[in-house]
Amino acid sequence: MTEPQVLPQDIIMLMGGRSRRMGRDKALLELDGEPMVYRILRLLNGVGRPIAVCNPEGVLLPLTIPMVMDHWQDCGPLAGIHAGLAHGREEMALVVACDMPFVSPVLGETLMKTMIKEKKDAVIPRVAGKEHPLFAVYHRRILPLLESMLAEGKDRSVTGFLQQIDTLYIEEVQGWAPWQFAHSLFNMNKPEDYMKVIHQK
After folding, report:
1. Per-residue pLDDT tens digits for 122-171
2. In this structure, is residue 1 part of a structural domain?
3. Residues 24-59, buried b or exposed e (16+ Cβ, 10 A)?
């Protein structure tokens, strides 16, 4: 497995969720004494230029990366993707949720290279039929349609949006076993997910 390369992309870290099912801010959950937001930034260091999309309450930890707020409040991750793309500098961006403890820079690089090669609007991993749009690459040309959907206030789901753009789904990474692919996309929604990570990391 080769080392990830620095590619022309932003990294949009979504930290604007309310963490209702977890009951606490997922960005602050610790693994080996390291808050999740720091862990993800460390794992993806060198893959792109990071931007944090935060909720109005802000972040309780010091961050040295740009931080932006959703233009459309309480509109879910689609609004976070919009905010990150709107403030990004590059044509493409890797979106990552703040509750993914095993994010892979190699997978991020693979998604990015696939977008460049296939010239798609979005490249989304899919495992056993489940899509993972919150560790995926998006092109900035989707911004006008994204703004239109959010402004209209109709279907604000990421899944619904992906059906309206040129989306490519990938289900494997060359040289990886299926479990490695799934492991890199694991996310924590509930306390039991967090406990599983602590005991099985």
Report:
1. 999 999 999 999 999 999 999 999 999 999 887 789 999 999 999 999 99
2. no
3. ebbbbbebeeebbbbbbbebbeebbbbbbbbbeeeb
Those residues whose C-beta lies under 8 Å from the C-beta of residue 94, and which sit 6 or more positions away, are 9, 10, 11, 12, 44, 47, 48, 108, 111, 112, 135, 136, 137
**CATH number of the domain that 123 lies in?**
3.90.550.10
Question: Does residue 143 lie in a domain region?
Answer: yes
Structure tokens given for 32: 């080996």
Residue 70 is assigned to a ligand binding site? yes
Q: Is 36 labelled a binding residue?
A: no
The count of structural domains within the chain is 1
121 known member of a binding site: no
Question: Per the annotation, does 201 bind a ligand?
Answer: no
Q: Is 14 annotated in some ligand binding site? A: yes
- Is pTM beyond 0.70? Reply is yes
Signed CA dihedral, 19, 187, 45, 120: sign only? negative
Q: So what's the pLDDT on residue 26?
A: 83
**Structural domain boundaries, residue 157:** 9-200
Residue 2 lies in a domain: no
Per-residue pLDDT averaged across 93-98, rounded? 95
Q: Is 53 part of a structural domain of the chain?
A: yes
